[in-house]
Design brief:
The protein has 225 residues and is an alpha/beta fold. It folds into two domains: 73 residues; 124 residues, 3-Layer(aba) Sandwich (Glutaredoxin). The protein contains six helices and six strands. Strand 4 and strand 5 form a beta hairpin. Helix 1 packs antiparallel against helix 6. The protein is elongated, with a radius of gyration of 28 Å.
Length: 225
Amino acid sequence: AALAPSCARLGRAGPRMTRATVLLAAAALAVACAAVADYDSAARDLSGERETKVHALNEENFERLTQAATGATTGPWLVAFCNAVDYECRRLKRLMPKVATTLVEESEERGRIPANVALVDVEESPWLAKRFGLSHVPAVLFFQLGVMYYYQSSSYTAEKLVNFAQSGYRSAGHSHVPPEPHVADSHERTFLIACAVVALMSGILYVVDLLLQRSRSAKRKLKAR
């Protein structure tokens, strides 16, 4: 008999807790679907880059794809830093697919792993230019085993760039790749937003439930009087 009031209270709280659980589950599912869609979109973009053999790098994916500061586990990278306005930048961009194709063909003939070829738009990713100390564009860097080598010629031709990526970098100026301060990418931001949304909804539901309990308690006290 003593347990009856407690059981009754649990029974009344049950529907509220069920509704709260359903709302939280729906919110988490919606955010998860958004995260999956974002991941699929990124995967399709990367797949397209592989087909052209020239990767588009930016502040979000640079370190994840190149592993430049951690020992280049994804292989060497020849990266051109450009903008959309400069004439030499536009000419260099047109050369990069030919450079990538030549590196693949010649590496296959020699039984070697070709260097990855990529472009960075410094207007969209100014932090990368700052990270690598670039004061002008176009600029070409070769990344291998945690070291970056500077292409120091002012002449940009497919032949010279291929030679630089194959062996010319060895006699070029170089320095260690500076470490990357952690910057949350789009997937991490989506996850953090999901956590924040779930936490916020949990807090709101808790406060609403608490207010309802106090309201019912006050009504019971008034009736008792």
